[in-house]
Fold this sequence. Notes:
Low-confidence stretches: 207-211
Distance between the termini: 19 Å
Mean pLDDT: 86
Structural class: mainly alpha
Strand order of the largest sheet: 1-2-3
Amino acid sequence: MVSTVSAVMGIGAASAYLTGAYLQFRSFTEQAEARTPVLIALAGIGVALHAAAGFHLIVTERGLNLGLYTSASLVTWIMLVCVLLASIRLPVLNLLMLIQPIATVSVVAALAWDTSMVTTIPPDLLDPALLVHIGLSIIAYSILFMAACQSVLVAVLDHRLHRKKTIRLLRVLPPLQTMEGLLFNLLWAGIIVLTLAIGSGFLFLEDMFAQRVVHHTVLALASWAVYAVLLAGHRLFGWRGSTAVRWTLIAFALLVLGYFGSKFVIEVLLEH
Length: 272
């Protein structure tokens, strides 16, 4: 049962996110520079309220609730925190336009559908090694989700470059070379953490079929392979632009199917 405090905090976070996303999207469509302090303030308020709501939804008396909706909410929260911190030195605030609407949906879903009765991990099963694996997995998904969003922005700018409609758009987005450099930095960070997450996961893998993680494991490994090929291709053959975007989105789609797809089947389809 979702508490009133969590509901109020969650709705407040969603409202702040939507307001910030709307202001940023409007500036993007009008190709005018957005007011950075306002965007940061709204995102900061949303992150604070999101944290308060998420804590009560995830940390329960019965244990740690990391179901489909609460996990998605946690991933988007980490993404937003990373963007706000990185914005001190890097041009990443444009990612807020994509991440905040997704965070809004995840917060509302976590509030609307309480699956804690079937998704909570009891305290006696939460040993430190498992918590490390869970933490690495969530951080990896968060970074690679940011990379997927960044690839969308790269695709938009690349498309406009080919149509020679970028002069005003460059007031909103950094140069393409900067955008692509940030994309590959995110991909390198993401695959490093993903490698650690997959490696630590094998410590708890006894019987994939009995533990119902065969699809999750296979798709996670497939995603890792696609990311590795992309990074190797970038380093050896200079892959960039639409090629980098396409491979990034394919790899992330596999990752989403492996983790959230498996959770959806187990927690939603098989429970009904």
